[in-house]
Amino acid sequence: MNYETGSFTQDRLDGPAAPASTRRRWIIAAIVLLAIAAGAWAIWGRGGKEAEAAPTPSAPAVSVVVPGRSTVDRTIAATGTIAARRDLPVGVAGEGGMITRVLVEPGQWVRAGQVLATVDRSVQTQTAASLAAQVQVARADLTLAQAELDRAAQLVDRGFISKADLQRRTATRDAAAARVKVASANAGEARARNGRLDIRAPAEGLILARAAEPGQIVGAGSGTLFRMAMGGQLEMRAQLSESDLAGLHTGARATVTPVGQSQSFAGQVWQVSPVIDQQTRQGIARIALRYDPALRPGGFAAAQIVGGVSQVPLLPDSAIQSDEQGSFVYVVGKDNKIARRGVTLGQVSDAGVAITQGLNGTERVVRSAGGFLSPGQQIKPVRAKA
């Protein structure tokens, strides 16, 4: 009895407990599976749908301009030297001699005929005095001959003097008059020679250089003693290529800036070279300048010459891109997609960059931020003022 009772009691304790434990394990396993399924659905199911449903990113808004066509000056850059427009070499006009005084210095303004230097004339002065005395002698002879002729003319009617004597006295008077003219001419020649001993300015202008000193012996073969700019007129001789000379004309405006100076000087092209140098393939445009102490002949200068006007598109500098293939811009098409367009740049000014080739002015051009875009990219163009 006791055995059976004990066995029954153990069956009652162990029998029902086993199924309950098993159920708990199944419940826990089911919960874990549900959690895994929910996670998988959240990752692959819901996430995939969200990815599919995610909207496409909106196109960026980019400023564009339509440049049109503007009138711009055709500017030619050139370099060259400053020189006298009419460089006058001054030397000895007479027989020369020893220079006694030099009266001018480089940079000094002189009048036409002003004495620049004097030459010793001690011998020439005595010669001139001698010739002047001969003139006086010849005039005295003429006076005596004329008086004798007048007395003879009064006596010939009375028969005291023959007509032949009268004619001789007339010839003597005429010879004396001729000798006066010869002596006067010799004296005048001497005075002219003495006047040519002084070295004088042939015209009004500016003394540029001096090569004469007191005590120097000069003559007809001494060469140039002074150089001067006639009227103080200066010019810049700008070196230009054949293509630049082709469209250049006299009267074109120019701005000249000497090297080492910030000051610029207004000028005008007064002559365009009719020939081209066969070696350099360049010609010279001569730009007339007014006299200014800051302009030094022989100095180097740069010039900006306005060679005409043209109608071209103008773009801001921010619109221009460049790489190893050259300069380009981004043009917006009808589908708002950008495309690369190669361009040729012209003059750069405060108004913008002139485009000589590549655009006709009606295109929509990306104004800025071109470095962040790429060809084929779609944008939202926002038109800005050109």
TrEMBL record:
Instruction: Give me the Gene Ontology terms describing cellular component.
Output: efflux pump complex
**What SUPFAM superfamilies would the database entry show?**
HlyD-like secretion proteins
Provide the family line. Belongs to the membrane fusion protein (MFP) (TC 8.A.1) family.
Q: Where is the CzcB-like barrel-sandwich hybrid domain?
A: 96-221
Q: What is this protein called?
A: RND family efflux transporter, MFP subunit
The alphabetized UniProt keywords are: Membrane, Transmembrane, Transmembrane helix
Pfam families, per the entry: Beta-barrel_RND_2, BSH_CzcB, RND-MFP_C
State if Transmembrane helix is listed as a keyword: yes
Question: InterPro entries under this entry?
Answer: Beta-barrel_RND_2 (IPR058792), BSH_CzcB-like (IPR058647), MdtA-like_C (IPR058627), RND_pump_MFP (IPR006143)
Which part of the chain is the CusB-like beta-barrel domain? 237-306
- All copies of the Multidrug resistance protein MdtA-like C-terminal permuted SH3 domain together span 314-367
Write one Gene Ontology MF term.
efflux transmembrane transporter activity
Q: Is Kinase among this UniProt entry's keywords? A: no
Q: Which organism is it from?
A: Sphingomonas rubra
Domain of life per record: Bacteria
**Bilayer-spanning residue ranges:** 26-44
